[in-house]
From TrEMBL:
Keywords: DNA-binding, Transcription, Transcription regulation
PROSITE patterns membership: HTH_TETR_2
Cited PANTHER family: HTH-TYPE TRANSCRIPTIONAL REGULATOR YJDC (PTHR47506:SF1), TRANSCRIPTIONAL REGULATORY PROTEIN (PTHR47506)
SUPFAM superfamilies: Homeodomain-like (SSF46689), Tetracyclin repressor-like, C-terminal domain (SSF48498)
Protein name: TetR/AcrR family transcriptional regulator
Pfam family, one: TetR_N
DNA-binding region per Swiss-Prot/TrEMBL record: 26-45
Gene3D superfamilies given in the database record: Tetracycline Repressor, domain 2
Annotated source species: Amycolatopsis minnesotensis
HTH tetR-type domain location: 3-63
Coiled coil regions in record: none
Length: 185
């Protein structure tokens, strides 16, 4: 459990890291914007690296909750449930993700494989792949591992190209391709 001050620091850090980039935001700015001292920030998180990892973990928790809520509240047939992840991405992008995937952005900024944020990023992508595989398997479709990998690549590509405005309605386009893949399976 985080103290109210630590929650505020985490909230502010998340907003600043996502909007400006991890390296562009220093602990001085986070502390000032949060209304705490740097000492409080370090007492609660230990280091900027640990704060980055915590920010990524919190964002991952929110993403997972969003995806699960979108899929689980639907009454779609099992064969269509994997497509609901694209719906979740579309609403997430519209409300939480205008600069693209926070995990891809962070990965680009964290070249050190030992950075604690890198494991959070990898966990987020592994979870999504496993969830897609489970949805495909529940639908009884052929080769769930291969199909889940294809769906993940479509989701990730749509996130990046959509954030760059390279492909209009990238998520919808990716969902259409995913539908074709699911129909063929």
């Amino acid at each position: 459990m985080l103290t109210p001050a630590a929650e505020k620091v985490l909230e502010v850090a998340g907003e600043l890291f996502y909007a400006n980039g991890i390296h562009a935001v220093g602990v001085d700015a986070i502390a000032a914007e949060s209304g705490v001292t740097k000492k409080t920030l370090y007492d609660r998180f230990g280091s900027k690296d640990a704060l980055v990892a915590r920010y990524l973990r919190r964002r991952d928790e929110r993403w997972r909750e969003h995806v699960l809520a979108t899929v689980e509240r639907s009454r779609a047939a099992p064969a269509r449930r994997p497509l609901l992840v694209f719906d979740a991405l579309e609403t997430w992008t519209a409300t939480m993700n205008p600069r693209g995937c926070a995990f891809v952005n962070a990965h680009a900024e964290l070249p050190d494989a030992g950075h604690p944020g890198r494991e959070v990023i990898a966990d987020q992508k592994r979870w999504l792949l496993a969830y897609l595989r489970a949805l495909v398997a529940e639908a009884g479709l052929r080769n769930p591992a291969k199909l889940a990998r294809a769906l993940l690549i479509l989701l990730e590509g749509a996130t990046v190209t959509g954030s760059l405005d390279v492909v209009p309605d990238a998520v919808r386009a990716a969902k259409s391709i995913a539908k074709d893949l699911l129909d063929a399976a």
